[in-house]
Amino acid sequence: MWWAFVFYALLQGIASSDLRNSENRYRRLVGQSKDATFQVGLDGKITFASPACQAILGYGPEAFVSDPDLLPRIVHSDYHQRFDTFWEEYHTRGIFPEHLIEWGWIHKDGHTVYTENVFTNLLDARGNLIGFQTIARDITDRKRAEETIIQAKEDWENTFDAITDMVMLLDNEHHIIRVNKAAAESLNTTKESLANKKCYEAIHGRNQPISGCPLLLTKKTLEPHTVEITEPNLGGTFICSTSPILNRARKLTGYTHSLKDITESKRLQVQLQHALRMEAIGTLAGGIAHDFNNLLMGVQGYVTLMLMDRDDTDPDYKWLRNIEKQIQSGVRLTSHLLGYARKGKYEVKPVDLNELARETCETFGRTRKDITIHKEFPDDLRAVEADPSQIEQVLLNLCVNAADAMPRGGNLIVKTMNTTHDAMRDKLYSPKPGNYVQLTVTDTGIGMDNSTIERIFEPFFTTKEMGHGTGLGLASAYGVIKAHGGYIDAESTLGEGTTFTIHLPASEKEAHRAVTRDDKIVKGSETVLLTDDERTVRRVGREMLEALGYNVMVAKDGKEAIELYSEHWDHIDIILLDLVMPRMGGSEAYDALKHINPDVKVLLLSGYSIDGQATEILQRGCNGFIQKPFNLKELSGEIRQVLAKK
Predict the structure, then answer these.
(1) Residue 509, SS3?
(2) Is the same domain home to 390 and 293?
(3) 380 shares its domain with 499
(4) Are residues 472 and 541 located together in one domain of the fold?
(5) 614, 602 Cβ separation under 8 angstroms
(6) What is the mean pLDDT of residues 556-563?
(7) Which residue did the predictor score with more confidence, 94 or 416?
(8) Which domain-ending residue is among 144, 176, 208?
């Protein structure tokens, strides 16, 4: 039987040799692979690790074999739960939770590594489970690329939703593929509900594009197109833009479609145009009033000279007084124009609007017994900084306007109340924040249509018949209120009446009554230098001054005044200086005169008012101001007041 033993031994040797050769071939293959291979026993200890683990994880094979806890230690924190679940499944059931598992690891140098692992069971010759083997492939670069793509998609989505305009992506049949957050919110729905709808169905509620839709133009030309549309469903005006989405062959595959809400910008544009128009009209009105006042100055001057030595027994006295009344009518007309141009004469002080409105209503009520005036004046009304005579004129203009709208009588309601800038929302202006006093005048008259309301504050615009109004009352009111830092609005409905609303900035000061005084003609003997570019004003001014007893020198502009004053400054007691002149105006001339003599006394003259440039000169030390046209009494009083100043 010895031969049988020998034969068995030979077979065993051959089998052992084949096994060793097979194992060597396997280890050579594993050693050359870029994927890391681990073999793990049932006790969880690593019995074999391939050289590739050094390149992937930074640790050599011996480190994993000698340290059973190394592998669990380097599992990334995001994968701890997965790692624990894996071992629990494997130990309790002897199976792998998934055939292919992604793991995250902490490399020896600290950066994160990702692997994709395939698991297989290890069996002995009898088929018994002795452990498992895993092959780990480094997918870090792929993982980073995927994360970059995911992040880019998230960034795109966030950017898309951050756009405040409505934006839609459409296919080439106009179906919505995707919309941003603004589009869904503007249409009061969700993104999901808009998918697959046609854009004009979602936006306009129609089954076909609207007239002039840029989609149709883009489809024809393959070029971007933009139009302005007004959409009642969205409640505003929009810039609607469409751009084509083309593939590499320049074939149309879809569109980008956007709507930009320009409702507010359109409102601001209208506001700006309105303001520019009113400013231009105001400049024109102010220039006309200035020139007209210079003309009236000549008439007023000669009339007051003729009246100087006459009494009511003189046969010409009555006619001269009538001429003077017509001059005052002209002055009132120019005051309306200057009021609109915001160049009226203002004496601003704290005013009780209740008291002023009550007195004005009583005055007006005596002239129109057929109108019932209702007054609502709260006791706690704040004061306003205003010129009482100007505000009184505004209120009278509004009352007269209301009376004209109620030819057969009616009700006039005048109210005051404390309020704030919040009460003036949605207007064609942006009020300054703060407290305001509101004055409203409401009538029960015939009302106005929208086209009339839009022009109601323009000068010379009137709905009255020829000879029944100048069209300056409301224009003047507009200018006066604006000049006081306030706002005036009108609301009206045909057949239902009109309401005018005024807002004036409230004052913290206590209101007081104005004090008036009577002036008398006071003569003098000093030397006066009269400076004015208007020949008529120089001529009548000289005669008025000489009638008052003064010695008079005249200059036709600022340069000539400076030349005369440089030569005779020690003999000239006061200078009457026109504000607006060619070559050199009053402001520049005043500074030059002050340079010659710091104590020079100057009385400003102007067809404009004390408001504006005149106020600036007065603040620099000028002694006084008088507005043309003026009479002898006014002129004499101002001159004596200036000469009395030290």
Answers:
(1) coil
(2) no
(3) yes
(4) no
(5) no
(6) 91
(7) 416
(8) 144
3-state secondary structure 439-456: EEEEECCCCCCHHHHHHC
Query: Of 108, 103, 140, which is closest to residue 118 (Cα–Cα)?
Result: 103
602-606 vs 112-123, strand pairing mode? unpaired
Question: Residue 432's Cα: distance from chain center in Å?
Answer: 12
CATH code of the domain containing 74 = 3.30.450.20
Adjacent-strand bridge partners of 491: 499
Return the DSSP state at 288: H
Report helix angle 473-483 to 263-307, nearest 10. 110
Considering the domain architecture, whether residues 243 and 329 belong to the same structural domain is answered as: no
What's the total number of domains in the chain? Answer: 5
Which three-class secondary structure state does DSSP give residue 613?
helix
**Together in a domain, 490 and 383:** yes
> In residues, how long is the chain?
646
Write b or e for each residue in 532-560: b if 16 or more Cβ atoms lie within 10 A of its Cβ, otherwise e. bbbeebbbbbbebbebbebebbbbbbbbb
d(CA 98, CA 83): 12
Q: Which neighbouring-strand residues pair with 606?
A: 627
Domain residues for the domain of 634 are 527-644
pLDDT digits (tens, 9 = 90+) for 76-123: 999 998 888 887 877 777 666 666 788 899 999 999 999 999 888 888
The verdict on 319 and 368 lying in the same domain is no
What sign does the CA torsion over 72, 76, 79, 81 have? positive
Q: What is the average pLDDT score of the chain? A: 81
Domain boundary pick from 507, 541, 574: 507
153 lies in some domain: no
Tokens of 106: 């902490």
Query: Which positions ≥6 away from 227 have C-beta within 8 Å?
Result: 212, 213, 214, 239, 240
Q: Is the pLDDT of residue 5 over 60?
A: no
DSSP code of residue 77: G
Q: What is the 3-state secondary structure (H, E, C) of 257-272?
A: EEEEECHHHHHHHHHH
Pull the structure tokens for residue 262.
Answer: 């320009």
The one-letter amino acid at 192: E
- What letter represents residue 258's amino acid? S
